[in-house]
Amino acid sequence: MAVISYTSAEQAGGRIGETGLFEKKPLGFREDDGLLSPYSVICYWSHFYSLKGGETGELSHKGFEILTFVLDGVIEHYDYKLKRWKSLISGDAQVLRSGNGVIRSLRLEPGASVLQIWTDPNLEKSLNTPSSYDNYSSDMFRTIIGKGISTKVYCGPGSPMNMETEGVVIKEVSLAEGNHKYTDSGHSFVSGFVIEGSLTIKNNSLEANDFFIAKGEAGLNITALSDSRLFIVESPLEPGYPTYAEKFVL
What is the phi-psi region of residue 35: left when phi exceeds 0, alpha when psi lies from -120 to 50, beta otherwise? Predict the structure, then answer.
């Protein structure tokens, strides 16, 4: 499979009502009219941010595992069990297992931005389990330093992140200007979001906020035209259970 890319302009989204929040969705739901449909265990992928600060209001979720990664600034989430707000800062992450139902609220401080990714942990099971969540501070994740490249491992071997969705690897990769090779198992989807910088992958020119997918590639040759930062998710080609993505297509 060739690498397929989606520029920020091609993604669905915009201002979210009167919340003070803005959103771009490389992968949204059916009603979002985006170019990309769910695949593998990836059901939803959103980059949302606020220039002056804003709040989502109450949100209700079931079944999905919802991952939140703070790219910049400070966000807060409301814990309805403890009845108080909790803060996450740049580099922090949260895993919310929505299970049989959960309500939450998010508040972004001015200048904050996050990536939010929804995965399918096997809805037939997760819809019958209680909800739970974990917050992770940035310093809990290891960073691997190489020549011209550093990799922060959010989820994968050696990471403390606990996900119900199996077979998922999540990394933030920083590249110095020059040529690099990103290596994976060759048996996965590699989904990437450009946080900052400019680069090319298999004749695809990518800038900040652009998105790409590669399927079953043993390695990706990446040319960073400037110092760049990527957010990458590896997910299984064959999850091993009926997925939301399959139901979506049918």
Answer: alpha
